[in-house]
């Protein structure tokens, strides 16, 4: 049995990557980690050229990645939420799994999970529930393909303003939007996955739960 993990984070060794790798490791099964920034994946063109062949007509890495998803026994998709929605790389990857649907439903019945890194605190009422949007984009894909959604991991992430060099004085600083007018780079700090016990626990649980689902089949 093999579990495929796909990360849409463009940052090397990011919080998203770390959470995904821990979930994969916790399955105790054969796994493969995919970093989408290393591949060229165009979004779906809605041309329906894949209906008869179950293969996309776009000649890029999306064909290879869809085949990996088809061959895997389970799938964990990990992304982040720029502008309060699922990132473009991860969304494009999901769209390119559409050819697997026609007639056969190649993803149906497979267990899957979502990992989302989000910088917007859940308790800020005036801002969108970005983490919910990210999780649901993955969850609803799996639901619509007949997969078994096993669980989710939510990681607290960082806005780019933390590292851009102008986070304290910029009038557009997301630090102040999220944490108040007196917030600074130093007072906010950098969120690290390993220092988030609930997220670490959730990643381990997701991996074990997926393994249990596969072993019970």
* Multimerization state: single chain
What is the element string, with H for helices and E for strands? Answer: EHEHEHEHEHHH
What gross morphology would you assign?
globular
Number of strands: 5
> Distance N terminus to C terminus?
11 Å
Largest sheet: 5 strands, parallel
Count of individual helical segments: 7
Low-confidence stretches: none
Summarize the amount of helix as a percent range: 25-40%
Q: What structural class do the secondary elements suggest?
A: alpha/beta
Rg computed from alpha carbons, rounded to a whole number of angstroms:
18 Å
Spatial arrangement of strands, main beta sheet:
2-1-3-4-5
Determine the mean pLDDT: 96
Proportion of beta-strand residues: 15-25%
Structural topology:
Elements: E1 2-7, H1 15-27, E2 30-35, H2 61-71, E3 74-80, H3 88-95, E4 111-118, H4 130-144, E5 148-156, H5 174-179, H6 185-188, H7 197-215
Parallel strand pairs: 1-2, 1-3, 3-4, 4-5
Descriptive report:
It is a single chain. The protein has 217 residues and is an alpha/beta fold. 35% of the residues lie in helices and 17% in strands. The chain has 7 helices and 5 strands, in the order E-H-E-H-E-H-E-H-E-H-H-H. Helix 1 links the parallel strand 1 and strand 2.
Comma- or semicolon-separated keywords:
217 residues, alpha/beta, five-stranded parallel beta sheet, 7 helices, 35% helix
Quick recap of the structure?
The chain is α/β, with parallel strands linked by helices and 217 residues long.
